[in-house]
Amino acid sequence: MRPQSSLVKRLTLMFMFAVTAVLVVAGVAFYGLSQHHFRMLDEQALAEKLESTRHVLSISAARGELDDQEQQLRALLGAHQDLSAKITKADGTVLFSDSKASQIPQRFEQARQGAVWEWQDEAQNFRGITAQLTIAGEPEPVTAVLMLDVTTHAHFFVTLQWWFGIGLVISAIVSAGLGWVVAKSGLRPVRQITKVATGMSAKSLRERIPLEPVPLELQELILSFNGMLGRLEDTFVRLSNFSADIAHELRTPVSNLLTHTEVVLTKKRDLDAYEENLYSNLEDLKRMSRMIDDMLFLAKADNGLIVPEQIDVDLSELVSKLFEYYQFLAEDRGIQLTLQGRGKVRGDRLMIDRALSNLLSNALRYTPEGNEIAVQIEQTRETVTLSVRNSGVTIDPQHIGKIFDRFYRADPARREGGPSNAGLGLSITRSIIETHSGRIWCTSEEGVTTFFISLPASKRLVGAAPTP
Q: pLDDT of 6-61, one tens digit each?
């Protein structure tokens, strides 16, 4: 596996690259604007000299002062140290030319009207303009070529590039150092979180990371981490209680087996005594077998290993058959079983039958004699809701959310554990319902407890009319 770089290193490099990129953009923009500025100044100077030259030639021609024309042009154009000029007639006669005009290439004299051109001669740089000037008394316009020496500008830009390169390197180094300091300082809360997380153990799951000194950007991470600790604590507590409960549940039948066997082996007995002991041991072994089967079922459900069969299941038909099964037990205690409504879901018939059987047996266990257990089915276009309502001891609100936990004891009056029940019925029911993409919940108030199951409705039966 390729080693991963540290977050401080990444942030430092990102900060350095960001600063360098900003400086490069700013430097390129400044360089371009500077070149544009100097070019505009040069063009403005050439345009002003060209206009002054036109003015001088026009006045001289109008007054007939052609003798003073060259002196005026020399005074005008020669005053600029870096300026060279050449003025010629259409027939090639030179009206004016200074000593440096010989450097101007012949091709620029035929340049486009008003075109600004640039030329480099060895170590010198020039910028010039060519224009046609109309003079009174001349049948054809004269050609004026003005050239400005901009070598100092070129040297300035070379020096600017050199200093910009040095400044960019220095800025990159400084920004890297500042980025490292900023990253180390900004990640200090992360190191605190790491320190707390490192010290976490099964005995310190109650600890939480405080939010006060943590920056706003990390508070969501802290809240998520604290929430994870809360879930781990709850899971660990439930697992610890589950381990203790299952040990308690298994201890009783194992203790019974040991006791019965030791008593029988204390002396020689007849066959009837041995047979009676084996039957007694068989009951405890069956109870342990049922508990193990239930635990295996829950383990498979927790790991998503249970794949329910997908067939249409009529809940009203299923409840009616369960009523027939529990009818004799209900009649013995004077409990009336009622069913209202119809609904069809898609799932595993045997698994749903087991879930409903658990709810009905649980209701029969805690319903006082002479009361009623009412099952109602309501179907909408998307879901089917089945409720099992019975009278009895009200479950305390603090226990409502936990009664589906394995071996959970909400109230001694509603204790599930017994000779024939290991306390896993509601847990198995919840696993079955969740495997079918449904949900289960319970309400209990004023002596009436109701369990609700909501499952996706089968598309083949929608809006069925309730049956009395």
A: 778 888 888 889 999 999 999 999 989 988 888 888 888 888 888 887 777 777 65
**C-alpha–C-alpha distance, residues 58 and 62, integer Å:** 6
Percent of the chain with pLDDT over 70: 81
Quote the tokens at residue 204: 């310190």
Phi, psi of 344 (to 5 degrees): -125, 130
Tokens of 441: 């919940």
Instruction: Give the chain's radius of gyration (CA, Å).
Output: 50
Contact (CB, 8 A) for 390 and 363: yes
Q: Which two tokens stand for residue 131?
A: 């224009």
C-beta separation of 387 from 442 below 8 A: no
Can you tell me the distance from the alpha carbon of 52 to that of 365, in angstroms, rounded to the nearest whole number? 117
Give me the DSSP letters along 99-162: TTGGGS-GGGGGSPTT-EEEEEETTEEEEEEEEEE--TT-SS-EEEEEEEE-HHHHHHHHHHHH
Contact status, residue 454 vs residue 306, Cβ threshold 8 Å: no
Locate 47 and state its tokens.
């345009």
pTM of the model: 0.49
Q: Which domains does the chain have, with CATH numbers?
A: 7-168 (3.30.450.20), 216-302 (1.10.287.130), 311-456 (3.30.565.10)
CA contacts within 13 A on the Cβ side of 427: 23
Residues 6+ apart with CB under 8 A from 258: none
Select from 141, 120, 128, 122 the least CA-distant residue to 101.
Answer: 128
Neighbours of 251 (CB within 10 A): 10
Q: How far apart are CA 323 and CA 353, in angstroms?
A: 12
- Rounded CA gap, 45 and 291, in Å? 103
Q: What H or E segment, with its residue span, contains residue 448? A: strand 448-456
